[in-house]
Specification:
Layout lengths: L1 E3 L21 H5 L1 H9 L6 E2 L17 E4 L20 E7 L2 E8 L16 E9 L5 E9 L6 E5 L2 E6 L2 E5 L6 E6 L2 E7 L5 E8 L3 H5 L8 H4 L3 E9 L2 E9 L7 E2 L2 E8 L3 E8 L4 E8 L5 E4 L4 E8 L3 E8 L4 E6 L4 E8 L5 E9 L14 E10 L5 E7 L9 E3 L5 E6 L2 E6 H7 L6
Antiparallel strand pairs: 1-11, 2-23, 3-30, 4-5, 5-6, 6-7, 8-9, 9-10, 10-11, 12-13, 13-14, 14-15, 16-17, 17-18, 18-19, 20-21, 21-22, 22-23, 24-25, 25-26, 26-27, 28-29, 29-30
């Protein structure tokens, strides 16, 4: 469990439906299998129906408003494999309208330390803060990390969240991390509500003490056979307080909005019920979704939810719903899109999908190497209509970390592209897409 919330020591008294203390959601226990299946599904997103093939996307012809070469900073492009192992090798984030943070992996020998006892990996990332629009470096630092998972997220108001080992820290343009949350177990996943007012922290919990104590015959296999659990903490950031806790068998995707969590429950005839559990109220059903596979749910904003679905012929699609259950749009997936990822855009009126563009379609279980890739596409959509309003092609390809971000007002895009960090006006990108009004 979360063992330290520096701003509020009695946070554990906050709960859902219980005045005595935080307790597990029964809904989690009911759909644990669904959560595990959703966790194993690849994230698949796509184009508006009817959609133009990704390969027909326009070539980049716009000149960026800002262009900062990254090789002088010490950045090296990824090798052939690490980017396709979902390693978070780079992080690119707007701190505020006038500052951009770029963090990247720096290879080299490190002296082994014990700052993270359970760590199997120890690495160093170099971090720079750039002033905009000049691109001048105003601050630099080195951070030691202990895995290759995502480690940096935007919070807004000039702050980012940094994960190092079992700690979550707040960091700004001064690159001076301050402790926010300390977990007692290994942090497996960190996610946020669309407005970043809430963070969901999943940590591996050790087996209960009575798991082995109740065994009839002690065994050397107790450690391997004991039931593992994942503790989930729902934490409000302003003010810092625990909203709820849950326990699930394995880490998995847990979509939330500001006032509740979303889940899918099984229903007859390949149907699924999109359900919402309100943190301070009753649960209610939002919509019934038809899909041959468990639909993976993500929140675009606090009012718009999208579901990734499967239909006959292994056709994948993305469907957008409001909280009243109305279907807003449906976007089909292209067979040449690999590992599409949702990128939120501040204000919530638009969203982006970043996906590796393959040279040829591949089966879901076939391995993918850099020889199969032909760059990355960043497609930007209107959240209410699902219409693609802009697109951008970039290299190198990344399947972990973050190589694109949007300014706090949602009007500019920063992207790591072809050896430089480039910043574009979103309005210019919209005008450059054929068929869009000029």
């Amino acid at each position: 469990m979360i063992s330290a919330l520096p701003s509020e020591t009695d946070a554990h008294s906050k709960s859902i439906g219980s005045r005595a203390g935080a307790e597990c959601f029964s809904a989690f226990q009911a759909c644990a299998t669904v959560l595990m299946l959703m966790f194993l599904l690849p994230v698949m997103l796509g184009q508006k129906v009817p959609a133009a093939p990704v390969a027909a996307a326009i070539k980049n012809e716009l000149q960026p408003e800002v262009k900062v070469p990254v090789s002088p900073l010490g950045y090296l492009p990824p090798g052939d494999l690490p980017a396709f192992y979902y390693h978070a090798l780079v992080e690119l984030h707007f701190i505020d309208a006038d500052h951009l943070l770029f963090a990247f992996n720096t290879p080299g020998l490190l002296k082994r330390d014990d700052n993270c006892p359970d760590a199997a990996v120890q690495r160093m990332v170099h971090v720079v803060v750039m002033q905009l629009p000049s691109g001048q470096v105003v601050k630099q630092a080195d951070w030691e990390l202990y895995d290759f998972a995502d480690f940096l997220w935007r919070l807004g108001d000039g702050k980012l969240m940094l994960r190092r080992c079992n700690q979550l820290e707040i960091v700004g343009a001064d690159l001076d991390p301050q402790l926010l949350i300390r977990a007692s177990g290994k942090i497996e996943d960190v996610s946020f509500s669309p407005d970043h007012s809430m963070v969901v922290v999943q940590e591996t919990a050790p087996p209960h003490a009575d798991d082995s104590a109740n065994a009839a015959i002690p065994s050397v296999l107790d450690q391997e056979t004991a039931v593992q659990r994942t503790n989930v903490s729902f934490i409000q950031l302003h003010p810092l307080q625990m909203i709820a806790r849950a326990v699930i068998p394995l880490p998995g995707a847990i979509p939330v909005i500001a006032n509740g969590l979303l889940e899918t429950l099984t229903a007859p005839k390949d149907n699924w019920v999109l359900n919402m559990q309100v943190f301070h109220g009753a649960e209610h059903q939002i919509a019934t979704i038809h899909s041959l596979c468990p639909p993976a749910i993500q929140a675009i904003s606090n009012t718009i939810v999208m579901a990734k679905t499967c239909s006959k012929g292994d056709q994948k699609a993305l469907e957008g719903y409001n909280l009243q259950g109305s279907l807003l749009w449906k976007i089909a997936l292209e067979s040449t899109q690999y590992d599409p990822e949702l990128i939120s855009i501040p204000t919530g009126s638009r969203f982006a999908i970043e996906s590796v563009r393959l040279k040829h379609p591949r089966a879901a279980l076939d391995p993918v190497t850099k020889e199969d890739a032909d760059g990355e596409d960043i497609d930007i959509y209107d959240a209410l209509s699902g219409v693609r309003i802009a697109t951008f092609q970039t290299t190198p390809d990344y399947t972990g970390g973050r190589n694109v971000d949007f300014s706090p007002d949602g009007q500019r895009m920063a992207v790591l592209h072809d050896g430089a960090i480039e910043i574009y006006s979103l309005n210019d990108l919209v005008k450059a897409l054929p068929g869009m009004p000029h």
